[in-house]
C-alpha cells in the first residue's frame, strides 16, 4: 500500500471521527430546516394570500418570513455539510457561494428587523409626525437588499478552503473557513466592519424598543388613570365638559370605508386617536410636537362606539409592537453569542483548531444559535396574532 493511500485512509478516519462528534449538532440543524421551512412557508401562505385587511400592520411579515426561510435553509444546510466534511471540504467554489448566500440572507433579515423597529418607533412615539408610506417601505427594503449584497460580496474573497493540520497523525485536511493567507489586514478590517455593523444594529434596536416600551407604559398608565377618574366622577355626579382636562376633539373624526377603525392606512386616523386620547403634557413627554393637535379644544364627547373603536385600534397597534419586540429580543439573544465568537475568532486565527472535539461541538452549536431567530417567528405570530391563529385552524381543517 503506497504512502498516498495510507494518508487518504487516515484522513477519512479523522474526518469520520470529527463528524461522529457532531451527530447531535446535525440532528438539531435538521430540525432547524424542517421547522424553518414549514413555519415560514405557512406564514408566507397565510399573511401573503389568505389574510385580508390590516395590511399596514402586517406589511413586513411576509418579507421577513421569506428572508427567514432562506436563511434557515441555507445556513442549516451549510452547517450539516460543514459538519460532515470537517477535514475533507474540497470544493472551494461551493464554500465561497455558501458563505455569500448565508451572509446575504441573514443580513437582509437583520436589516428588516431594523426597518420594522423604525416603523414602530414612528408609529408609537411620533404618531403625528411623518410615517413610513408604502413608497418608503419599499425603498427601505430595496436599500436593505443592496446593503446586504454589498456586505456579502467580500465573503467570496476572504473565505475559502483552509488547511487543517492533525499533527498527531501527520496529515492535513481542508475546511471551509476564513482564509489566513489572503490579505490579513483587509480580512481583519472587513471582519471588524461586520462586527461593528451588527453591534450598531443591536444598540439601535435596543434604543428604539426601549423608547417604544416606555411610551406604551406611559400611555397605558394614563388610560388606566383616566378611566378610573371617569368611573369615580360618574358615580358622584353627571359629568360636565368643563370638569375634564383637555376634552377630546371631534374636529377631525376618524372614518373608514368598512366602518371598522383602520389601524393606520393614513396618518389622519392615527392622529385622531392621538388627539382625542393623549393630554397636552403627555404629548410633550412622548414626542407629539404638533401644537394644534395638543391644544385643548372644548367639544362634545365621542360616542361610546367610537371610543371603543379607538381603544381597539390602540390595542392592535400595541399588540403588533409587542410581537415585533419579542422577535427582536430573540434576535438579540441568538446573535450576541455569535458576535462574541466572531471577536474571538478574529483575535485568534487558530481558534477552531485549538478547541477539543467536544468543545468544538458546543461552540458550533452556540455559533449557529442565530438560526433559531429565523425559525421562531411563526410561533410568535401564532401566539400573538389571533387572526393568524384562526387562519391556521382553517387550513388544518381543510387538510383533514
Order of helices and strands: HHHHHHEEHHHHHHHHH
Overall number of structural domains: 2
Strand order of the largest sheet: 1-2
- Beta percentage is under 5%
The computed structural class is mainly alpha
Main beta-sheet strand count, sense and barrel state: 2 strands, antiparallel
Unreliable stretches covering 5 or more consecutive residues: 239-282, 284-301
Our Rg estimate from Cα atoms comes to 27 Å
Determine the number of helices (DSSP H or I, runs of at least 4 residues): 15
CATH topology value of the largest domain: Rhopdopsin 7-helix transmembrane proteins
CATH superfamily of the largest domain: Rhodopsin 7-helix transmembrane proteins
State the distance separating the first and last CA atoms: 61 Å
In short:
The chain has about 400 residues and is mainly α. It has helices spanning about 5-20, 25-50, 60-85, 90-125, 135-150, 155-160, 185-235, 265-275, 280-285, 290-295, 305-345, 355-365, 370-375, 375-385, 385-400; strands at about 160-165, 170-180.
Explain the overall architecture.
With 400 residues, the protein is mainly alpha-helical. It is built from 15 helices and two strands. The chain has helices at residues 3-20, 23-50, 61-84, 92-125, 134-152, 155-158, 184-236, 267-277, 280-286, 291-294, 304-347, 357-367, 372-375, 377-384, 386-399; strands at 159-166, 171-178. α2 runs antiparallel to α3 and α4 packs antiparallel against α11 (304-347). The chain is elongated and about 100 Å long. The termini are far apart.
Amino acid at each position: 500500500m503506497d504512502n498516498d493511500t495510507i494518508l487518504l485512509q487516515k484522513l477519512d478516519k479523522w474526518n469520520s471521527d470529527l463528524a461522529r462528534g457532531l451527530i447531535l449538532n446535525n440532528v438539531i440543524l435538521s430540525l432547524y430546516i424542517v421547522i424553518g421551512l414549514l413555519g415560514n412557508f405557512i406564514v408566507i401562505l397565510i399573511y401573503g394570500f389568505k389574510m385580508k385587511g390590516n395590511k399596514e400592520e402586517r406589511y413586513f411579515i411576509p418579507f421577513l418570513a421569506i428572508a427567514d426561510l432562506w436563511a434557515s435553509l441555507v445556513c442549516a444546510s451549510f452547517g450539516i455539510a460543514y459538519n460532515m466534511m470537517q477535514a475533507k471540504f474540497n470544493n472551494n467554489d461551493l464554500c465561497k457561494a455558501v458563505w455569500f448566500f448565508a451572509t446575504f440572507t441573514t443580513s437582509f433579515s437583520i436589516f428588516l428587523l431594523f426597518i420594522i423597529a423604525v416603523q414602530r418607533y414612528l408609529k408609537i412615539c411620533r404618531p403625528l409626525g411623518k410615517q413610513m408610506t408604502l413608497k418608503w417601505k419599499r425603498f427601505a427594503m430595496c436599500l436593505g437588499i443592496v446593503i446586504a449584497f454589498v456586505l456579502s460580496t467580500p465573503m467570496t474573497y476572504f473565505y475559502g478552503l483552509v488547511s487543517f493540520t492533525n499533527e498527531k497523525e501527520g496529515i492535513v485536511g481542508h475546511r471551509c473557513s476564513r482564509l489566513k493567507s489572503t490579505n490579513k489586514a483587509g480580512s481583519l478590517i472587513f471582519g471588524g466592519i461586520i462586527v461593528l455593523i451588527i453591534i450598531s444594529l443591536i444598540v439601535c434596536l435596543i434604543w428604539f424598543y426601549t423608547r417604544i416600551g416606555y411610551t406604551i407604559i406611559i400611555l397605558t398608565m394614563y388610560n388606566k388613570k383616566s378611566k378610573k377618574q371617569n368611573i369615580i366622577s360618574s358615580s358622584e355626579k353627571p359629568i360636565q365638559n368643563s370638569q375634564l382636562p383637555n376634552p377630546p376633539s371631534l374636529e377631525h373624526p376618524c372614518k373608514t370605508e368598512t366602518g371598522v377603525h383602520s389601524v393606520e392606512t393614513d396618518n389622519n386616523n392615527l392622529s385622531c386617536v392621538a388627539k382625542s386620547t393623549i393630554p397636552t403634557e403627555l404629548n410633550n413627554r412622548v414626542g407629539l410636537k404638533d401644537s394644534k393637535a395638543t391644544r385643548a379644544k372644548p367639544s362634545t364627547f365621542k360616542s361610546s362606539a367610537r371610543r371603543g373603536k379607538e381603544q381597539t385600534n390602540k390595542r392592535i397597534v400595541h399588540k403588533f409592537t409587542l410581537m415585533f419586540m419579542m422577535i427582536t429580543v430573540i434576535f438579540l439573544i441568538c446573535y450576541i453569542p455569535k458576535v462574541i465568537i466572531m471577536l474571538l475568532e478574529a483575535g485568534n486565527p487558530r481558534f477552531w483548531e485549538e478547541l477539543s472535539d467536544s468543545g468544538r461541538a458546543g461552540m458550533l452549536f452556540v455559533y449557529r444559535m442565530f438560526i433559531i431567530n429565523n425559525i421562531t417567528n411563526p410561533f410568535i405570530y401564532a401566539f400573538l396574532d389571533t387572526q393568524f391563529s384562526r387562519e391556521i385552524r382553517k387550513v388544518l381543517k381543510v387538510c383533514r
